[in-house]
């Protein structure tokens, strides 16, 4: 039975494009539907959350998720990725090494999740189950989801992390999934893996992708416009002493 975005608690952004705000850390997960394929943007903060996203996507798309794009390697955006193990997984160049079995990247994600309040058992299970990033994006990479639906994945970082991936869905309006390069519900967070001196330039690249009329979907919070992204870019430049 066909359901609407709203019936599942999702926000429709454009034809075949929507997102939901997940509880707990208020993370965004996005979904882009084509005639032949479905792209999930980020996967939630736990295996359970990923499974719920998978179920919602199947109801909205009428098929399984075929592609998964991870905007950056933080636990609240990737720990549900095992729910999409049979999808083609994309991340910015360098993400794959962080997810390697037995590597320090997985341990850092697990430790950060526990520090932020995720149950230790659930954090360990999600870290152990992390999927391989089969496709690392350097520069830009186009996806054809069928029926004229084109999506552009762009390695726009570093900034919030060393591995920031944006997802552009052209249209009227265009939709740009920004990951945590943009945050609306609080001040952008700069952890130990941030590259603050390059963050404003990453936002310039986002603006170049979407243009003035796009909808910009932050990693946390409400959808914003280009003026908000510019203001956040300027605030970050001032905060980190980056000359423009």
Question: What does this protein structure show overall?
Answer:
Helix content is 29%, strand content 26%. The strands form two sheets. Strands 1-2-3-4-5-6-7 form a seven-stranded mixed β-sheet, with helices on one face. A five-stranded mixed β-sheet has the order 8-9-10-11-12, with helices on one face. With 244 residues, it is α/β, with parallel strands linked by helices. The chain is built from seven helices and twelve strands.
Fill in the keyword field for this structure.
single chain, about 240 residues, alpha/beta, seven-stranded mixed sheet, five-stranded mixed sheet
Q: Roughly what is the average pLDDT, rounded to an integer? A: 95
Could you estimate the helical fraction of the residues in percent? Answer: 25-40%
Low-confidence residue ranges: none
Biggest sheet layout: 7 strands, mixed
Q: SSE order, as H and E?
A: EEEEHEHEHHHEEEEEHEH
Strand order across the largest sheet: 1-2-3-4-5-6-7
Rg over CA atoms: 17 Å
Q: What sort of overall outline do the alpha carbons produce when their principal axes are compared?
A: globular
Strand content: 25-35%
Helix/strand/pairing category: alpha/beta
Structure summary, number of beta strands: 12
Terminal-residue CA separation:
52 Å
Number of helices: 7
